[in-house]
Design goal:
five-stranded parallel beta sheet; homodimer; Amidohydro-rel (chains A, B); seven-stranded mixed beta sheet; 8 helices; TIM Barrel; Urease, subunit C, domain 1; alpha/beta
Amino acid sequence: MFFMVIERVLIVDPVDGEFTGDVEVDDGKICRIRKRECTPRGILMPGFVDPHIHGVMGADTMNCDFERMEEFLYSQGVTTFLATTVSTSLEKMKEILGKARDYIFKNPETSLFGVHLEGPYISREKKGAHSEKYIRTPSKEELKEIDLPAKVLTFAPEIENSAILLELLEKAIVLSAGHSNATFEEFMKFYREGVKRITHFPNALRTLHHREVGIMGAGLLLDDVKVELICDGVHLSKEMVKLVYRVKGAGGIILITDSISTAGFKEGTTTLGDLVVKVKEDVPRLEDGTLAGSTLFFSNAVKNFQRFTGASLKELAIVSSYNACLEFGLADRGRIKEGMKADLVLLDEDLNVLMTVKSGDTVFSA
Amino acid sequence: MFFMVIERVLIVDPVDGEFTGDVEVDDGKICRIRKRECTPRGILMPGFVDPHIHGVMGADTMNCDFERMEEFLYSQGVTTFLATTVSTSLEKMKEILGKARDYIFKNPETSLFGVHLEGPYISREKKGAHSEKYIRTPSKEELKEIDLPAKVLTFAPEIENSAILLELLEKAIVLSAGHSNATFEEFMKFYREGVKRITHFPNALRTLHHREVGIMGAGLLLDDVKVELICDGVHLSKEMVKLVYRVKGAGGIILITDSISTAGFKEGTTTLGDLVVKVKEDVPRLEDGTLAGSTLFFSNAVKNFQRFTGASLKELAIVSSYNACLEFGLADRGRIKEGMKADLVLLDEDLNVLMTVKSGDTVFSA
C-alpha cells in the first residue's frame, strides 16, 4: 500500500455519474479526486462484487479454495466476493464457515467478504443442481451454528418451519429467497419481515402465471426487492434480461456469476457438491440436462448486461458493485469518492479489465 | 339529437386531463366546453369502447343479436363495441359479417362499430374455448371473403401460411395476435410488419419462460404493442394486472370484457359457438374447466382496473376508450373536446354509470 495516482480516466461513480480526471490513492484509500477535462485512457469503476460464486478455474468453495478463487477473481475486476456453498451437511457447512473465518482473519485485506450459503433449506421441487439428500427444513439446533462469516442464506419461503430463519437477520445475515416454489403470498410473508432479495432470478423459481404470479411476479412487482441475475445468455435469454431491467431498473439488479469450479475450462467433468457436472460448449449441466451453475466470468457478465440492455456506465457500476455493497451495509466501498476504500477496476472501452486495485494495491494488470 | 347541457361535472379527457365545468352538446357533437370551478355532481368520461365482446344477457354475436347487445351495453357506458365471433365456418363468418353490415347501414348511429373475428386462424394448443373442428390455417380464398365491417382479426402468428393474413391490413382490419404459442421471434416477424396488438393478454398465450419469453414477453417488452386485458379478477390475478400496468402503463392497455351470452346470469348453461359452457358462481367454463369467456360487465372492468392499479381517472379514460379509438383510427371520439362526437358516460364517484349519451342522445339513465 503506497501512494498511487490513476491519471486521465473516465471516472464512473454509481451516484455522481461519469466525469474525467485523476484519482489519488494513499494508505489503501481514495484520498483525492481531481476532476479535469482530458482524453481518458480507460474507464475507472468501483471494484466488482460477486455475491454468488461457487468456484472458478478448478477452485471450489466446497474445498475451501479461497485463495485461488481470490487470485483469479482479480483478473475479472472482482474485489469483493462471497464464496458460495451448495446444500450440504451441517458438519460441512461448519467446516467451510470456520475455514473462511480463519482465512479472513489471516488476510485482513482479502476480497473474500464471507460465505453465501445456498441451501440447504430450499424446495425439493426447485432444487436445480442441489443434491436432494441434503435438502431439509431448518431447525433451531442448526441455526445456532450458522453465523458470520455467513453473509447470505438462500432459502425457500414456503418450506416447513421457514419462519425461524428470520432469526438470522439479527446476525446480519441477509436472507435471499431462491430455489423456491413460493406463491406471491408465501413470499410476501417474508417480504413484510424484511426479506427483499431473490437468488438467481428467475432461475429455479415458480413460473409466472397470470393467475398466480408467484415469487417471480413478486420480484418484478416490488420496487425494493433486489434480484440476482446470471447474465451469461444461457440462464436467461437476452429478452428476459431486458425485461427485468425495464421493469426494475438498475437499482433492483445484482449481477452474479454463479460460476462453478469448471469455469475457465471449455469442456470437462467436475462436481457440484455430490453431483457430477459435465461441461459442454461452456455450459455445465447435470446428467439430466439441468443447468448446474455457470462458467461465466464476472467481466463478461458486465459486458453481456451492457449489450443486452444498453445500460449506461453509471448503471453498470450500480449492478456490478453498488447494489451489493448497499445490501451488505458495506459503506466503505462501491463508490469512487474521497475516503472510500481504493477497490477499483480499470476497463478499456470494450469493458475488458486492464487493471484491478484492491485496498490500494495493484492486484492485477493486463 | 337536440341541444343538451351537462352541467357541473368533473370532465376527464385522456389528453387534457381532469377539470370541472359544463359540456354543451348540439347536433350529436360536443359544441362547447366551459371550464369553471364548481362542485361536480359526477364524472364525465368519453363513452367506453369494448372491442371484444361475444355476448351478454342472453344475446350472442353468433346469433347476430346486435340490437340486444347494443341496448344492454348502454347501461354499461359502452358507446362503441365490436361484436366478437368464435372460430366458426366461413359460411357463418360471412353470414355474421353480412348481417352486421346491414345493421350498421340501417342504424347509422349504432354503437356497433364492426366485428372482431376471434379465430379461426389460431393455435390448436392454445385454443381455449374455441371448437377445434373450426380451427384452420388461412387461405387466399377465405381471405377474399373477409372484409369490413370486420375490424379486428385475432390470429396465431406461428401457424402455417399465417403470413398471408398481412393482406388484411390493407383492408384496414387490425391484426391482433392471440390464442397463440408463438415464440418471441415468431411474434416479432409480424410486429415488424405492423402487428402491434395482443388479444386478452396473457390468456391463451405461451407462458413467459426466462429462456424463451415468447409472445407474452414481447407484449410486456415492446412499448408500442397494446394488449387487451380482462379485468374480472378471474382471468388474471390482481398482481398480474398490476404488473402489466406497471410495465406498459395505461398507454399500452385496452380493457375488454370478453363476456359471453350468459353474462348477467349468475348460474346457467349456454353455448359458445358449438361448445357447451356452464356458469358457476359467475365464472363460465367448459366441462374440462377451461375458462370460456367471462361474465364481466364493462363498468366493472373499469372499477376493477382502478382498484387493482390505483390508476388515475385520466388513465381510466385511456384504457377504457382512447387507446381503442386510436387503434381503429376513430378520430371522432374518445375525447371530451369541442367538435368530437358526443359519446359520453357520466359516472358517480364509485364509477357507477349514471347516464350514457350516444351521439348526443341520452341512451341510458340510472
